[in-house]
Specification:
Helix content is 29%, strand content 23%. It has 520 residues and is of the alpha+beta class. The protein has three domains: 90 residues, Immunoglobulins (Immunoglobulin-like, Sandwich); 96 residues, no CATH class; 230 residues. The strands form four sheets. A seven-stranded mixed β-barrel has the order 10-11-12-13-14-16-15. Strands 1, 3, 5, 8 and 9 form a five-stranded mixed beta sheet that branches. It has a four-stranded antiparallel beta sheet with strand order 2-4-7-6, with no helix packed on it. A hairpin with a 2-residue loop joins strand 15 and strand 16. Helix 9 crosses helix 11. The two termini are 42 Å apart.
Length: 520
């Protein structure tokens, strides 16, 4: 073949390659005309801008409060564990006898048990915020325990349940067992069942819980309630902050997340995050069709993943949990097996009818801003209303691996390394590398849609994710949660290291914004 013919053949090859780059033929709404929310600015709480976690003086004497932190809420019945110690400070099981408590006029002693084998229990209700010196006496033995009393600003949830059976839940963490219990929220009692919530988090020392209230009972319009421990995140803020970015920075239906003061059988269990469950009640509360089809990508560990590629028929219910709707995977299978496998020409015509494109793009833009890679194969919801022409919408869920923390093969979700430059287009393979999601891959194959997603990410990074906006969110929430956070003995971070962990979020926000600004 002559050089001229070779050259012409090469041109034809290049032209064919170029022609495979899909172009988006449909009109796009101007970005400024999209339904961006306009949330009000948060009031700044100066006390929380640089949190000062209280450091209490050492306990003295032979009788002491065993609680390590010794921060106690006012006007809530609290159980104290009292122990006797030797002169050298070790536990002394030989001490027996009655125990007296002196609250210095700051509350009431509801019950106190005698010291038996060196231990006693006291139930108290303390009044007034501020330092308190608790006096302890048993015969000739005395002790003084400096305490700090605070007034919680959070809803108080108390679980009353058989403690032995609750401990049994932890011992069989991955069995889906439920226990009858009573849940009291701000003085109102609800009959409920309780079980552990989550996947790998069931193995953590601080558990997450799910409650199913008795038929006919609701709390804030919901029967099914979730309390997340957030133990893997040393700040306990990432999941909440990421939900706030979606709620304040996009128009997507996003679960509400709020902190609560959680107690179990009279003892403070810890600061917990109540995250609204995505179900029929969630849809109804937002004026959405509760009869629409709703699926959660929740594949089992080690099994098939929810990457929107075809599965054997019996695997769809395993990978995609059906929460609402009547078709029971038929419509989802159609999206995955028919729509997402169309040839480019047919696909570009079908996509606007089948998927709410701008909703998907803003979802991906917000995920890029908070740097979440955990949503590509799991931890997302798919929803399609029966009467809406908008098509499928992807909803965010389980946003704890954000703001710098990522999964790694060696450390799973507990690594301490902070990453700021992870792939913003995760789900769309780059030269065959990375995590794959067929829906993301096909949508971001269009340069116009990819550029639109980048423009949305720029907007989110400059508004909701701007350093001053995140700082206001952090300081506002710490105004409410800081005492309960400091008193939480089950959290993963020690009080002394918490400010440094908080600084990592601030540093991530600035660095991630710089990364996103380089995208075009």
């Amino acid at each position: 073949m002559s050089s001229r013919l070779l050259f012409l053949a090469l041109l034809c090859t290049l032209a064919a390659a170029c022609s495979t780059t899909p172009r988006w033929p449909h009109p796009l709404t101007p970005l400024d005309a999209l339904p961006w929310p306009h949330p009000p600015l948060d009031a700044v709480c100066e006390a929380a801008a640089a949190p000062a976690l209280p450091a209490l003086a050492p306990q003295t004497g032979r009788l002491r409060v065993e609680n390590a932190v010794r921060l106690l809420p006012a006007m809530v019945v609290t159980t104290l564990d009292i122990v006797a110690v030797t002169a050298a400070g070790g536990f002394d099981p030989g001490v027996q006898g009655p125990l007296d408590l002196d609250l210095g006029g700051r509350g009431e002693v509801i019950e106190v048990t005698p010291l038996t084998d060196g231990r006693a229990l006291a139930r108290v209700r303390l009044a007034g915020a501020g330092p308190l010196s608790l006096g302890l006496r048993s015969g000739a033995l005395t002790g003084t325990s400096p305490l700090m009393v605070y007034e919680t600003r959070l809803p108080v949830w108390e679980l009353t349940v058989d403690q032995v059976r609750l401990d049994g839940l932890a011992a069989t963490a991955h069995e889906d067992r439920r226990l009858p219990a009573r849940l009291t929220v701000n003085g109102i009692e609800y009959d409920t069942t309780v079980r552990l919530h989550g996947g790998t988090s069931r193995d953590y020392p601080k558990k997450s819980y799910r409650f199913d209230l008795a038929e006919g009972r609701q709390l804030d319009g919901r029967r099914r309630l979730i309390l997340r421990a957030e133990w893997n995140d040393k700040t306990m803020l990432r999941n909440w902050l990421a939900h706030e970015v979606f709620r304040r920075g996009t128009w997507l239906p996003t679960p509400e997340a709020r902190y609560v003061h959680f107690r179990v059988n009279g003892r403070y269990y810890g600061l917990m995050l109540q995250v609204e469950r995505i179900d029929g009640a969630f849809l109804t509360a937002r004026g959405l069709d509760p009869e629409g089809d709703l699926y959660e990508s929740d594949p089992p560990l080690g099994g098939r993943v929810g990457d929107m590629t075809p599965l054997p028929p019996d695997q769809y219910p395993v990978v995609y949990d059906h929460h609402a709707g009547a078709t029971d995977h038929a419509d989802l299978r159609r999206l995955i097996e028919e729509v997402l496998t169309l040839e480019p020409g047919a696909f570009v015509d079908a996509l606007p009818r089948e998927v709410a494109v701008d909703d998907l793009l803003v979802y991906l833009a917000a995920m890029a801003a908070v740097q979440n890679h955990d949503h590509v194969r799991k931890n997302y919801y798919l929803y399609r209303a029966t009467t809406s022409p908008r098509g499928w919408v992807v909803l965010p869920w389980d946003l704890d691996l954000t703001f710098g923390h990522m999964w790694s093969e060696g450390e799973d979700v507990l690594g301490e390394r902070i990453t700021t430059d992870a792939d913003p287009f995760v789900g769309s393979l780059l030269e065959g590398q990375g995590q794959h999601n067929a829906l993301i891959e096909r949508v971001l194959a269009y340069p116009e849609l990819r550029a639109r997603m980048v423009a949305m990410a720029h907007r989110i990074a400059a508004t909701t994710m701007a350093p001053n906006a995140i700082e206001r969110r952090i300081t506002a929430v710490l105004c409410d949660v800081l005492p309960d956070l400091a008193a939480d003995e089950r959290k993963r971070a020690a009080n002394a290291e918490y400010p440094a962990r908080l600084a990592e979020i601030r540093q991530f926000v600035a660095a991630r914004g710089a990364v996103l600004r380089t995208l075009r």
